[in-house]
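Repro:
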Amino acid sequence: LRRIMLARSILITGSSRGLGLELVKQLSAANSSPGHIIATCRNPDSALELKKLAETHQNVHITRLDVGDEESYIPLVAHVEEIVGSSGLNILINNAGISPKSTRINMVKWKHMTDTFHVNAIAPLMLAKALLPQIKRAASQMDGGCLAAKRAAIINISSILGSIEENKEGGLYPYRASKAALNAITKSQCIDLRNFNILVTCLHPGWVQTDMGGKSAPLTPVESVSGIINTLHNLNEEHHGGFYQYDGQKLPW
């Protein structure tokens, strides 16, 4: 594992299972673990694996957050402020997401579309907005205009299914459209936040064996997340506003 600390503070949404949980596991186990790993999930009481990690790693802070519920942002922001203080928040990883099962054209429903957009596209934007003062504060701690995850970054976990160019199979309307929207949001954020030296990028974690990805996916969460962490270490100006795979490979919009 790398000896350099990725960042002083990282907030990860959707941390009770899948990629979010694996991110917390690998970051807390790193030789030079971040000072604060803020792991959010909807039901901390039932997040047993996450609670075990927090018991053995003092830098893991579990915080309740339902990304789709704007009211839950208020206590979250206050809690983050308590944890990070004047140093600000270095990295926000918008990982929480949903995907309805049956989404062929004859099966798709209004609610599939609105719920998926709500969680996958609108929530990452509004959470970034809510935490922006703290991310700006972290960015201002370093001199110069360089971009790096270590300084300040918003990482939107997207999907190759959100690539319009790569869509060869159709279907999956809610998920594809919500991730394409998240990619468009990422692009706008990168322009709006460049002057504050905040790096913004979207990452595709690969097709991973999680509850969402299913058992037949080729990648394990361990492989995907170790690639993601490695890529986060290497992010710089050229990745700003881009769309990359977990292993750093550039993807088409």
